Amino acid sequence: MATLSVTSTSSASIRMVPVTNSMTMVRFPRTRAPISLWNFKTSFSSGFLSLSITRKNHKYSFQVRSVAAPADATIGFDEMVSGTQRKYYMLGGKGGVGKTSCAASLAVKFANNGHPTLVVSTDPAHSLSDSFAQDLTGGTLVPVEGPDSPLFALEINPEKAREEFRSASQKNGGTGVKDFMDGMGLGMIVEQLGELKLGELLDTPPPGLDEAIAISKVIQFLESQEYNMFTRIVFDTAPTGHTLRLLSLPDFLDASIGKLLKLRQKITSATSAIKSVFGQEETRQDAADKLERLRERMVKVRELFRDTDSTEFVIVTIPTVMAISESSRLCASLKKETVPVKRLIVNQILPPSASDCKFCAMKRKDQMRAPRFDKE
Ligand SMILES: Nc1ncnc2c1ncn2[C@@H]1O[C@H](COP(=O)(O)OP(=O)(O)OP(=O)(O)O)[C@@H](O)[C@H]1O
């Protein structure tokens, strides 16, 4: 496993400094404007990168510690940014380690390197709006101000979507549900489950349903002509457990659809009373075709997440024993699922200081105790 970067701030004036020496973004408390440090002069010695920026007569100095040599880190980012083929970067890890901050900076960096970029949060507890200081809660793509190339951000709230789905189901006796789920690309599930107590299904959603809605929505946006320009898609995913469910989702849906199709076969070969569940012959065929299309789409999603040419899962962690342990388990699970994972961001490392307070000294000692990732 190659280590991409380790970053942290040493100045209280700077709110956030994630990712690498070559793709650092800082936020100033007053303006909250993202600023790329790509062209800033830096010096590097003994594993620490020193940066000094002067902006509006204020001087901000801080250090970034890089586990990888700067050349390695740059090569890492050069690799990520090269080519115009569409690439997906999924950032995941333990809660609170800085996934959103890193996803936001990576997206800005891509956009500043010529890539029309979409950054999507599928985490039910969103903070992408805070990172960009823009309201992204509407569930649609919002242009982010600042970067050189188009950068759009999208927060998907799966719980809200499920809630809308449930109330549509109650209000419109099913038609609203279908319209809503069609919008999510899952209309065919409604057709098949319409008579099978869908409300109950929503009260106890099967693992991955929320994520299914999120993925379908992103795919739907990317398929539209208006948004097919994006060459980099950055996913800020929910904490580890949700992410693993998201990855096993296509298999889950594939199996469920298989069951549904078998069920349909059984029902349609039974009495005419039961036939009414799925309507007349033509409608049945249509529904079966749609299910097949959903199955194909899920296979596509599964292949996409395992495609080393277009997708990469980047684990974000912090240097604590617990976070590194969870990251190691996540890494093992991803590899088991054959998801491409080769980069790790270690965030929030304390920079060196000659005059440590007691708290900082203890924290630094604690960080040094954090186990290291194996090379492989
Ligand atoms: N390198 C950093 N230096 C200083 N503060 C940071 C850094 N990285 C993240 N933070 C701060 O830590 C907090 C958590 O960061 P963030 O929301 O990006 O984490 P997350 O992993 O996405 O969290 P969640 O799991 O809750 O979605 C935020 O207040 C953020 O500003």
UniProtKB/TrEMBL annotation:
Matches recorded under Pfam families: ArsA_ATPase
Coiled-coil regions, chain positions: 277-304
Keywords: ATP-binding, Coiled coil, Hydrolase, Nucleotide-binding, Transit peptide
ArsA/GET3 Anion-transporting ATPase-like domain segment(s): 87-368
GO MF term set: ATP binding; ATP hydrolysis activity
GO process terms (BP): tail-anchored membrane protein insertion into ER membrane
Catalytic activity: ATP + H2O = ADP + phosphate + H(+)
GO CC aspect terms: GET complex
UniProt xrefs under SUPFAM superfamilies: P-loop containing nucleoside triphosphate hydrolases (SSF52540)
Family indicated by similarity: Belongs to the arsA ATPase family.
Listed name of the protein: ArsA/GET3 Anion-transporting ATPase-like domain-containing protein
